[in-house]
Design brief:
The complex is a heterodimer of chains A (257) and B (174). With 257 residues, chain A is of the alpha+beta class. Chain A has two domains: 3-57, no CATH class; 119-254, no CATH class. Chain A is 48% helix and 19% strand. A seven-stranded antiparallel β-sheet of chain A has the order 1-2-3-4-7-6-5. With 174 residues, chain B is mostly helical. Chain B has two domains: 1-83, Orthogonal Bundle (Rna Polymerase Sigma Factor, Chain: A), CATH 1.10.1740.10; 92-162, Winged helix-like DNA-binding domain superfamily/Winged helix DNA-binding domain (Arc Repressor Mutant, subunit A, Orthogonal Bundle). In chain B, helix 1 (2-26) crosses helix 3 (56-77) and helix 3 crosses helix 6. The radius of gyration of chain B is 18 Å and the shape is globular. The relative contact order of chain B is 0.11. At the A-B interface, helix 1, helix 3 and helix 4 of A face helix 1, helix 2, helix 4, helix 5 and helix 7 of B.
């Protein structure tokens, strides 16, 4: 065996791993102890391997990815669960005897399970989807008072308190959305960044009654979470939960709080 | 509830290495996020079919790699060229110490390798996977993994300006 063949085998060697237990590599390592030139090459190789390993491991993971995976899965599981329930209901409706059973079920079992639907993660996910996947603006206006009046007229939360910085951002309109049989006020804003043609808003505030969320934030101190491609800030003030979302990172949204 | 806690635990344990593997293959944050999310989505639907709990890690990495190959096939059928792709046509990085390279440069060098070398090398450096684990993940024989790693690392080090163990005109016999 020549020196280059030995080096080719040792290219696979990573110091500090179980590679040394591989018989072929173990043989070459023993050889390197006897051959000064080989030993020198091995030392440099180990240094290069360590650097390359470190470089690969410096790949940074985007903030909020874990939460996004978990919340997406929760939404998916709920959808499947609802579809299954709907199938059961459809089949059961044909049989009068089972109607009674369903009545009991719906008055006891179903409400219990509905509680699992009202977690903050699912709420955040659904609201962000509304913002990203399209919505009809019920009222298009830059007048904050008109927006408040429209929401009040439609029994959606209208006595919300905007953070001082957000009060300075121009609203573009509002819509009334739903969550757990409660109305959600959706107020749309334009931050001033260039927007693609046809897009009027790039920041959205959702306001809902605190009672409709099981694990609402405890205080006015915002919780930041990456949901889909929006950075969101969620906080509680009084009897309302506020969810603000926009594209970007945490500093991008903090300037509006 | 137990299932969802189990799922959360699994995500907490593996989402970072999976994302890093995905990013080393795609070099695009959005694509890497999608691949990672898709991998857990498939786990949620099919993970219960896995009988051997010790194979979870391999299963996840295999699934992500398969999804990556699938997405690559779709892109080949319906090519989507972005400006960043032009960077792949640039000449190899000039010789310099590997120490001076930053992670994007290392990944750029990885991208210049033939595709068959990229995944084994990413698993080799990112996860400290054994040769056998890499073989199981990529579903190729261990001998193939070793030869791909050896050629791939040699080529990667060439691109990064390091010394390699390639064929030499005057070979010293031991």
């Amino acid at each position: 065996m020549n020196l280059n063949e030995a080096k080719t085998i040792l290219l696979l060697y990573r110091p500090g791993t179980a590679d040394a237990e591989d018989p072929q590599i173990a043989g070459m390592l023993a050889l390197a102890k006897r051959e000064p030139e080989m030993a020198r090459w091995l030392e440099e190789h180990c240094a290069r391997q360590s650097v390359l390993r470190a470089k690969f491991r410096q790949i940074t993971v985007p903030a909020g990815l874990k939460e996004q995976i978990i919340s997406e899965q929760a939404v998916r599981a709920m959808t499947i669960s609802r579809q299954r329930r709907n199938t059961v209901f459809a089949a059961s409706a044909a049989m009068a005897a089972i109607v009674m059973f369903l009545f009991v079920l719906s008055s006891s079992w179903l409400p219990h399970h509905r509680n699992d639907d009202n977690t903050l993660a699912i709420y955040q996910n659904q609201m962000v989807k509304i913002a990203l996947l399209g919505y009809y603006m019920d009222l298009a206006t830059n007048d904050a008072e008109q927006i408040r009046a429209y929401l009040a007229k439609n029994q959606a939360p209208s006595d919300y308190v905007l953070p001082a910085a957000l009060q300075k951002v121009a609203p573009t309109g509002c819509a009334v959305e739903g969550w757990q049989d409660k109305k959600v006020s959706m107020i749309c804003f334009r931050t001033g960044k260039p927007l693609p043609p046809g897009q009027q808003s790039d920041m959205w505030l959702f306001v809902v009654d605190r009672a409709s969320l099981k694990n609402a934030p405890a205080s006015r101190s915002p919780q930041f979470t990456m949901v889909n491609r929006l950075i969101t800030a969620t906080w509680t003030e009084g009897d309302k939960v506020y969810l603000l979302g926009t594209e970007g990172n945490e500093p991008a949204i903090q300037q509006f709080l | 509830m137990a299932e969802s806690l189990e799922f959360e635990g699994l995500v907490a344990r593996y989402y970072e290495p999976l994302y890093q593997f995905a990013f080393s293959l795609t070099r695009a944050e959005a694509d890497a996020c999608d691949l990672t999310q898709q991998t857990f989505c498939i786990w949620a639907a099919k993970g219960h079919q896995l009988r051997d709990a010790s194979k979870v890690k391999t299963w996840l990495f295999t699934t992500l790699h398969r999804e990556f190959l699938g997405s690559r096939r779709r892109q080949t059928r319906y090519p989507h060229v972005e400006l960043e792709a032009a960077a792949a046509d640039l000449p190899p990085v000039p010789p310099a110490s590997v120490n001076l390279m930053d992670t994007p440069q290392v990944l750029q060098a990885l991208a210049q390798l033939e595709e068959i070398y990229q995944a084994p090398i990413a698993l080799f450096y990112l996860q400290d996977c054994s040769y056998n684990e890499i073989a199981e993940t990529l579903q190729v024989p261990m001998g193939t993994v070793k030869s791909r790693l050896s050629r791939g690392i040699s080529r990667l080090q060439e691109l990064l300006g390091g010394e390699t163990a390639g064929p030499h005109p005057e070979q010293t016999h031991l």
